[in-house]
Amino acid sequence: MRVIVAQAMGYCFGVKEALELADELADPTRVTIYGELVHNEEVQSRLAARGYVAMSETGRLIPATPAVMVTAHGISERERRKLLAAGKELIDTTCPLVRRVHRQAEKLRDEGYFLVVIGKSGHVEVRGIVGDLERYAVVERPQDVHFFTPGRLAVICQTTTAPASVGPILRQIEAAHPGQEVRFVDTICKPTRDRQNAAQSLLNRVQALVVVGGKNSNNTRALAQMARDRGIACWHVQTAADLDPAWFEPFRGQAVGLTAGTSTPDGVIRGVYDFLLDLASKYQGRPAA
Ligand code: SF4
Description:
Blueprint: E1 2-5, H1 13-24, E2 31-34, H2 41-50, E3 53-55, E4 67-70, H3 77-85, E5 89-92, H4 96-110, E6 114-118, H5 124-130, E7 136-139, E8 153-157, H6 166-176, E9 182-184, H7 190-203, E10 208-212, H8 218-229, E11 233-237, E12 255-260, H9 266-283
Parallel strand pairs: 1-12, 2-3, 2-4, 4-5, 6-7, 6-8, 8-9, 10-11, 10-12
Residues 12-15, 72, 95, 97-98, 159-160, 189, 191-192, 262 line the site of iron/sulfur cluster.
């Protein structure tokens, strides 16, 4: 078995900067992380061990601690004002590329467009994007599209949207609004695009793929979906402990790829890589079935 790693994978700069800031804070016990700093259980356990108070991403209340850390996914201005009005000190780790989507959404709203956001309904980043909008729709698949408005429409994306999913949704929106302006502004972030492109190239060279990342990480799930869409065997694992050597038995004479979402720590990727290398070396010299 050969193990081939993706050219781009793992932490993006937005996640790295948020974690660096969290690591630098001297007194985490006075800080509530407003949601999940990254969608990764191991990282969350580490932050909890340092004393950070965690708050669920759904049904968020005003935290009891004097300081609140806004995650890289961002929040709406409405929510920001609510926290400030409650006297909270905000430690803001919103990724600049998420801020760019917020600015774009505001600009298009002010120009009179009805906003269509391609993304996962209810996802924390999407809630932040639409939180200051009055007129909008969130669509994840072409079948979510229906007639939205007789006016002008602008389409933007959650930063971690799979680029390949955009075309069919756009065509469906245009078909549902014949003769109307449908303006598309691509707001998928570059790290996501780089990881998706690298995974696509990898899928040309492998017979199976291991994707490492949190189960609720949108971009990690998108990487796994790419493999499934191409009929390639794929396992989405959170750590090396989730791997089962039996899965790889049918692929021992073949190539297995490795990639990871933007919220996966290097050490976790390394653990999975070592597991696969170990298995590959065990298979060496054994005849293929
Ligand atoms: S995935 Fe993209 S938008 Fe999200 S934190 Fe990383 S760089 Fe920023």
